[in-house]
Amino acid sequence: MVDYFAIAVTHFLLVIAAIRLLNRADLDRADVAPGTALHGAHRKLRVPAGQPHPAGSSVSGPLHPQKRR
Amino acid sequence: MFDLALTGFLAAFLLLGVRRPFLWVLAYLYVDIVSPQRISYGLLTTVPISLITFCLALFGWFFLDKKEGTRLNFRQGLILVLLVYCGLTTTGADFPEFAQYKWSWVWKALVFAMFLPLTLRTRLRLEAAALVMVLSVATIIIGGAIKTLFTGGGYGELHLLVNDNTGLFEGSIISCVAVAIIPLVLWLNRHGTIFPPDAKVKLFTAALVFACLLIPVGTQARTGLVCAVLLAVLMLRSVKNKALYLLLLPLGAILAMPLLPSSFTNRMDTIENHESDESASTRVAVWKWTIGYAADHPLGGGFDSYRSNKITVQTRKADTNAQGNVNSVVVDETEDRARAFHSAYFEMLGEQGWPGLMLWLVLQITGLFQLESVIRRLRRHTDEASRSDAALATALQQAHLCYLAGSLFVGIAYQPFIYMLIGLQIGLVEQVRRRLRPARKVHEPIGGAPATGPAPATA
User: Could you tell me the pTM of the whole model?
Assistant: First the structure.
């Protein structure tokens, strides 16, 4: 009974994960190409205003409009 | 009904793979860890699902997946050399039949370890593979932990999903793996995007970590305790609030002590005094035998070469009075033969000789260094992707160190789950390398200004 419970819980989560993966474009899109939608690092980068990007950072696309100011 | 549900689940998973072939890779990870063919009684027992998922994963990658930017890592080359070397020692093994049997699953684990990083092209794939590995192992762990809570477990008494003392269903192995995946569970909790962090995810994470810690208690495997202590120390490096951690850790240990079954604490006491325990004494005797065997067979005796050992074990047990004074020492002598290596290091030495052991050690140690290099490289990066990658590198490093400590006492040199972890490590290292390489180029200053992105505001 305990084993069935464990199997039910984990397999339910596996199914949910598989369904969510189906709908994620970034599953197959390589994040090496700069400027692609997947290359989302630039969206969350915290660069203080007036400062250049840290050297070697993954940022390569345009900054978020808010950060551009 | 159960069989039908399990078969339906696997069939659905494979069908979804038609739309996203990477799901076939995940299906193989699941099948190799959970072994649904072993927990099922019906259709799945008659179908070679491991082979089917393996072929589908290979087919999906070869014909349907993109391969740009893919390159082989040094460690994949090492695995290939190890694979060839193991194949050679199998042909001249001391026990050809047993060696052939072990080879039949070892080569798959090694080939998959080489193949997995090729498929892990995106960060989401890396996360998905880690998630499926964790959830698959959780299938074994959750059941074992609940049984431990109700019955207290016992050495060799805790039945995990199937009544089969091999692979991940063996007490010491699952103890080591259960502790080793804790850092991965915590990483998924904090940086997961498939199940983004929320209250439900946090609750499940807490429950799963607790379950992982209960497994060494339930199986009463000393390996698990060694791994747990090591992980507690290693996590000092990654926790944010070190002072709070240092305060809570001993407090938690003190509170947990009275709740632990006495059989567990008695067994853990034998870590210090191995001479009183036959199991521990036998290991030491086998290790001594292996060193002598390697002197005679420096190139290894092939898989299962331990079968030729014949050892004499002396156990000493002190009889003490209430004041703790020794009344007498009982010396017992037992003879044993064909005892397994009980250590991955000696397993490699006995089976693959010095070259095999060196290859295996280089494979493990270079992994730790590669991950350390990723951590250091991303240390100053503030973007979410880099922070997540650095945290994953730390988690995989901690998991691997736990494995290396646990494998001192368990023969898990070819454990497929560990090779999947190695596959994840290679995948992460290559991904970070690919991600940072173009960034470096575009950030090369041209006339003193960054090449891309807006110029820093000066006015």
Answer: 0.83
